[in-house]
């Protein structure tokens, strides 16, 4: 399983609070968390790399893509968003983190506006496991807490998830579907809510475990070689 | 649409706190809330009525059944539970309230244990509308509050709902899938969480609106006359 | 309920077989079928009308849009496809017919490739009602037949439908999920398979009934006035 | 993974056609097919064994149970059906074959009547893979054929499947949802349609592969030790 972690990597360059928490970038922390959970073949790329980090050989050599973006969603080219969505449809797994709910690839795959309520006050988030038997919940307790996080609240304008794994409770009074699974074409998508850049969320052991579980769950059995085609089909002779 | 509200009607006879809130019984309050929302053909029955309130002519004359039970689940006969489930499979709507999650008809229709976490401390519940376009959410705000309710927490051991309308936030720190829709056979089932007997939940206008919406949503287009049969079918000649 | 039937309207101008079957255009036949089933507020528009038939006042005055397109999908502007998808997310219903599976608005709302197998030999299609209690199946028999249709076969590369109403059997040996319901944002989408331009499918009474049922099912309770926004939300004071 | 194949094992003792096809019983053929696909820890039990084949130590030592029954559904005790359903809710996988759609454990877990149309004429069944990326479809072609099978037709009175993997086409003109996945409690259920006793279906290599895939898919990550309880929960102190 070849995993690529894509990070916008802008906050870390500009905001000393963020770079203090993630001196190597959020991508490095996410990759370290994956490796700590036994996912070994992990590379990282960023928006400011050539081809926005995902030239065809990298994208086509990725089995599961992890995506973190926030302020620069609009800078991601439509062509790249289309390429990512097309590869998911061929079988690639996609794990979308936090503000990636508003990224071009995710919105394209969902077909909805993907809006949320939010408040960046750094309040307590408690994440409940709704489906304890789900592969993504293995090793995750009945609930776990992040002492300071950005709040996201319902309604989350996404299609009804095919599988709902986690629900968040926020001290400020909101709830959120924080772990949502989708099957799209031949690929699988896992959205996981936590991860605001000003908090050390991706250093949390349970968060890292969930992301690793999500990557494993999204791993494709096989990825189709070429585009899906509308296929003209002759009559089946056996009939 | 002929609606029957079934109530266990035991707490109200034995606990002055409950009878103080619901002097005519919970069934009367639910029925009044339905009528206040334009559902006019409503009758009420209780566990201690003949045939446990649902003799065949009453059950077979019901389009949507509303169910409230708590401490006497075990007294409901298996035969009645089977009859209710069978009629749902033929098309009758079923609206299950609060502790009815543990009633025989609901458990039989779900096929799961239907367990929850709970705490009867009378704390603040805030109910969020997850699917604002759903018929059951019409006229319901983004969220509404019940100042004192029993807490139910996840995991709620039910099948993944076909449609999820509401999520609850509890001040004590839990979340719950509070408005769950199911299609079973030809019938529809709506589970709605609020309604502990020691709090005046069924006098709340929004709660009454939700129940009325749920009853309308669960209304059958048609109810099958007889039992579903495994049908032996001859070849279709036209082929 | 204001219904607009959008038709590409090209085959009818160029192919005498098609114009023989649909002298006023497919849109006229679909609109007549709706009216025959009691849907009275129906207008028709076509691709070659100004603004491709859907200027803002028409689109914004539409509660349910019916879409038929085939050979000119690429001519529909990306802006129009985006506007249609955005309005569905605000609550507008969308009924997509036959080859509209490959239209820009539908593909955008699905997030998948929407490909099928196909064969235009004009063979027998038998359409089975999988969910007889569904509103779209009301008045539709256990199965109905179209003596000559184009075949579409699985895999149909769409997201798992939220509700599956019909399955097709083709004499040539294929099956297809022919009646698929989706909820996207605040809107509802119904895809209905039959309707190849060289066959008189939209003159079939059962087909017309299904489309009318689909339009009624997709009718919004309310359509949001403006775009969904990521909303910054203050803490709820009551806590 | 400890797999137990339960077979009613009555037809094979009484009908020479069946015993000619399955001289060691259907259970032996299913177990052989599992072993041929790398599932090694397989035992077989039958209805006429002590405790109807599933004494507590056997049931509690089973990770995935495969069930074949037909004419003796009523002889299975209600207590055993309840025990099987309870263990599924704790995490055990269940693979239900063919006429097991009408078995007590399956009906109890579905909550519906589970009826079908049928015709035992031994006609061609073609099984289409609707979800080629599903784990249960790995190694299965776009379609495969069984030259002689019993027909099952829609409507299949089960809850909407959580995942639909296969659809059947029958030469006689019917369609059927032949591969249906459910999550119930902590366990997973896979229903697979083919397998009439008078045809050599369980000697077919693709059928065996599907059953083995289904068993692997249904394998639990963990099985809960005790029954699910309605749990009284104190307030979470950290709040």
UniProtKB/TrEMBL annotation, chains A, B, C, D:
It comes from the Bacteria. InterPro entries: Class_I_gatase-like, ThuA-like, Trehalose_catabolism_ThuA_prok. Residues 2-218 form the ThuA-like domain. This is ThuA domain-containing protein. The lineage of its organism: Bacteria, Pseudomonadati, Pseudomonadota, Alphaproteobacteria, Hyphomicrobiales.
